Amino acid sequence: MDVFIIGITGGVGGLLAQKLRSRGDAVRGLVRREDQQAELATRGMTARVGDLSSITVEELAATFGSVDAIVFSAGSNGGSKEVTKAVDGDGVAKAIEAARLAGVERFALVSVLPESWRERDLGEEVEYYFAVKKDADIALSRSELNWLILRPSLLLDGPGTGAVSLGPAEFHGQITRDDVAGTLAELLHEPRIGRQILELNTGSTPIEEAVRANVR
Q1: Of 64, 72, 129, 130, which one is the catalytic site residue?
Q2: Origin, by domain of life (predicted)?
Q3: Which of 23, 102, 109, 161 has a CA-to-CA distance to 85 between 20 and 30 Å?
């Protein structure tokens, strides 16, 4: 496969890039700095230097080219409202339109479980983050793309277990970024999964088996 990752230098995106490369896939992405571009090149990945908030839809479509799939894993992680809107809101909308212009149908979005931390007082900016993420989910689900929305539970660093719980509705717990990336890589290689929202938590089912169980 030829996969373009928006968020290729992020926690999930970076791990996904490594896993796809290990499978023999071509990987490219959008980065903000030339040193990031150079570092990715040493690992056999190509990148375009640009800012998601300022790049035009037409420029982004040209950057996508004729890839097989686009993954949007960038995120503000509940930062300022301005950054959240630019990345998690407007950034997703721009990428959806650019994918349409480029003729790329497969589009995977890393989202968030809606009930994450509902027992806490999250503050205005984090609540805004959840609202923007939901708006992005809706926008993608109403597009004509062959979309996939993956909603992981609380993200942790460290090695994955290779086992998850994956389905249309899952409890909110925690999961390593490594297992999220592994699940995404497997989902991208399963063409029978599309136009689905899947939630992801740590579990006891091997990733490959969990993905196959969600073929509809």
Answers
A1: 129
A2: Bacteria
A3: 102
